[in-house]
Amino acid sequence: CAHGSLEDPKSVTHHKLIHAASERVLNDAKTILEENIQDQDVLLLVKKRAPTPPPTMADVSAEEKKKQDQKAPDRDAIFRATANLPSHNMDRAEVQTNIRDFQTELRKILVSLIEVAQKLLALNPDAVELFKKANAMLDEEEDGRVDEAALRQLTEMGFPESRAAKALRLNHMSVPQAMEWLIEHAEDPTIDAPLPGQASPGGAQAEAAPEAATEAAGTSTGDEEPRDELTEIFKKIRRKREFRADARAVVSLMEMGFDEKEVIDALRVNNNQQNAACEWLLGDRKPSPEELDKGIDPDSPLFQAILDNPVVQLGLTNPKTLLAFEDMLENPLNSTQWMNDPETGPVMLQISRIFQTLNRT
Q1: Are 359 and 98 contacting, i.e. CB atoms less than 8 angstroms apart?
Q2: What's the pLDDT tens digit per position in 180-232?
Q3: Nearest-angstrom CA–CA distance, 216 and 178
Q4: Domain boundary among 219, 237, 255
């Protein structure tokens, strides 16, 4: 038979027979009787698809080169490429800078106000009881604050409600991170164990109370020493929350070519907002992560105006205000909740008004 014809054995292996009525591929090793082929049946001879050849080293190298070519440019490369271009939309850029400055200044204000509130509470003769109350309120808030919509999403996926609530508390009410936590700890024997604050709602308070009383009792000499001791007590009962970067945002930004550490820093500075983090990475990268924990200049007109406000002064003596500042410092997305709170909302409103007034002047 001629090479390349249908009778050529090398060509036959590259074709297959299909029974048209049943759309069934016939087995080459079986006979017509075994395949139950009848007279007048229609058979189709179809060419088989050639298998995809494995990639060669040249293809792999080309793919790597393509990835390098598509990698996001760094700041120096952007400056070199745009050095000769004229500037546009200067007013718009100025507005964006003002917004970013407001977020930066607000964080600095909270850091400094926390220090002032600690000192004011330390001057109160019932300071120890106030700190115990603050600790109990923190436990109560932590136990009761579960986003119902987020909880419903997880339970609809099939997760038990108790586990879903625990995962949400541990992951700042983030549904994607809570889901990842539930999957990772599905086989953990302690997954159903309640959180420390839940196991005994008064446990943290009871634990802090003797310590607070002991600390206060041993510092009855002098005026400054009790304040320092009470400040230390507050630091011990204060629950600092570790920053958790949004997993999807991390992956998206790393796919643009940025290093993981840079991405996490950007998300921390910009409160897990992916677009703002991307602008930070491509811009001057200010504020830096190190600046997040610095307070505002105590002698600045802005801070003095805030401290002179009667509503703020009254709020700083309330332990709940102190807890609100701490929560917003670590979880900026919770600011809306505290703005709507009848005790902390007026304080936050006054701070916002003072900032906007001085920012315009």
Answers
A1: yes
A2: 888 888 888 888 887 655 544 344 444 443 444 444 444 444 455 555 555 56
A3: 40
A4: 237
